[in-house]
Amino acid sequence: MTQQEQQQNAPSLARAGGSMAIATIVSRASGLLSKLLLVSVIGINVLNDSYQVATTLPTMINELLLGGVLTSVAIPLLVRAEKEDGDGGESYAQWLITMAAVVLGIGTAIAIACAPLLTALFIDSSSDANPALVTAFAYLVLPGIVFYGLSALLGAILNTRNVFGLPTWAPVLNNVVVIVTLAVYWAVPGEISLDPVQMGQPKLLVLGLGTMAGVALQALVLLPAMRRTGFRFRWRWGWDRRLAEFGGLAFWVLLYVALGFVSMVVLTRVATNDKGAITVYNMQWLIAQVPYGVLGVSLLTALMPRMSRAAAANDTGALVGDLSFGNRMSAILLMPFSALLTVAGVSIGLAVFAHGESGVEGGEAIGTALALSAFGLVPYAITLLQLRVFYALKDARTPTVIQAVIVVARIGLLYAFLEFSPPDKLAVGVSVAMSLSFVVGALVGQVWLRVRLGRLRTGYTAWTLCLTVVASAIAFGAATGLAWLAVQGLGIESRVTGAWVELVIQGAVGLPLSFALLALFKVPEVKPALDKISRLVGRR
Question: Which end of the chain is more exposed for a tag (fewer CB within 10 A), N or C?
């Protein structure tokens, strides 16, 4: 299909954006449901810890093999080939798929052969984990490396051909397969033996192969869509000369990804020193990412083109203005949710996860880790925004250096919590260490950008940040008091029921009141939303 034909068949931006937004919401909801069922069916124990460790291996190895280079080098060149090549970039796409299949195939084979070594890398021999069980799960899920990589690559190719909906919906199918897998796991009689681990046990095979099947479906469902665009695959070998232009960028991106890999290895080794800690950490991280996934990513997506244009035009003033605006909006949008997760963290854990094998104890553990680490939400968003500024300046080295600082701080904090925290609170320590590392990243990034760009309007940003903290504290202080009165007045004795009542009241009262107080404080960024509400009320 030529570039002109692709443009003629392009869907409207609004229609594509609407489909993607709906798919993202459904994907997050179905993903949360799958994790809820996982905790309810399996519990928070050595079995779930082993599954969590094993299922992170394919994603991390895929990032090392393909992920970072794909996003930083291969996809920009795919767009360029679409514009420059006479076949609309089809031959380059064929070459890209060929190279990816070879690299991923070889990497997967090596990873499967080295599964026991990967387990030893991620699990300390003195920990409470079960290395044999992790290795057994790893053998079953590591083939997913190929499908993770191809899913990302095929989705990117479809995006360049103006097909946006299916690549965004594909993860939903993965989540559905996992949900079905957990239902089958629950129905299959027997248990997974922990000592000794037996590879042929039905429950072990169902859980491992079912998880891998979900990833496979996520990739394979994209193949018919590729054919519908007119794409025809053939093996294509050789070297594309344009890749040489991106050699330096690829090096720094790979180093950035490698640092993240090292960080995850250390985090896993530390967390597996306490039964259930890695599961608790993963569940609280899943919940904490919901506000950023809905609000923070949208803000970043909207600002990135503006920052890139300002950087390309050497307009430092506009770039600094976009950065300052992004930092302030991150605080305004996310600080109330950070406060909600802090005051209602335990309620969220009990309401969502205190079911089945997890029980009240498991839900409370997840909620406590969430509540005590939620302060990292805003620094996390600011750090990612700062890194995008460097990328807009075509600087991939500095984000890698900042990532190195974050990882060093994180590793130090992780081992400090391992040494000094009570054994049953290690999940909290790991979660807090992650959030503190984002605080370090935000501070380092701000200083570095000050040196690079000059004055950043930091005082203005700090004042807005303080206002969001005060507004959120007042709002959720009042909401928490009202929730306590409601639980006491209704005489609710069930902790789970009480948690639901508290969560509903704190969210329904605290969030609107936070934004109302920001309007009362005359925060400028809130005014456009107020004007729109006023116009809607006036029409009615």
Answer: C
